[in-house]
Amino acid sequence: MKNAKSPEAKKGLDFIVEKRLHEEWEKVDVYEWYCHEQACFQSTGSGSSKYWREWNKKFQQVVVKAQESDGHWPHGYHFHGDSDIYRTTMTILILEVYYRYAPMTKV
């Protein structure tokens, strides 16, 4: 998604940060958030876009607030197959985006 300059890409990214970034953990589908986070992070190929900055600032607050004292993340938006292990694993993948991906423009 090199620089996400097309009107379609910008419209999609605007939708993600305006409509899909929930403030309550109970509304979060972690797989959806994982995909949306990737789009925001890679929208410039380096994680420096306005979309990433807005997403990152807001999602961290929700994730930190929702974590249980034993380290797992509880159920939120439920779908078939969801479990504490799945939700915690997906949340950790979301939190690791800084370390896991090279800029797409340099691959």
Describe the protein in words.
This protein has 107 residues and is mainly alpha-helical. The chain has one domain. Helix content is 54%, strand content 0%. It is built from five helices and no strands. It has helices at residues 7-19, 30-41, 50-66, 84-95, 97-100. Helix 2 runs antiparallel to helix 3 and helix 2 (30-41) runs parallel beside helix 4 (84-95). The chain is globular, with a radius of gyration of 14 Å. The relative contact order is 0.18.
What ranges have pLDDT less than 50 throughout 5 or more consecutive residues? none
- The beta-strand count equals 0
- Helix-strand sequence: HHHHH
Shape: globular
Strand content: under 5%
Q: What is the topological layout?
A:
Elements: H1 7-19, H2 30-41, H3 50-66, H4 84-95, H5 97-100
Helix pairs in contact: 2-3, 2-4
Keywords:
107 residues; mainly alpha; 5 helices
Summarize the structure.
With 107 residues, the chain is mostly helical. The chain has five helices and no strands. It has helices spanning 7-19, 30-41, 50-66, 84-95, 97-100.
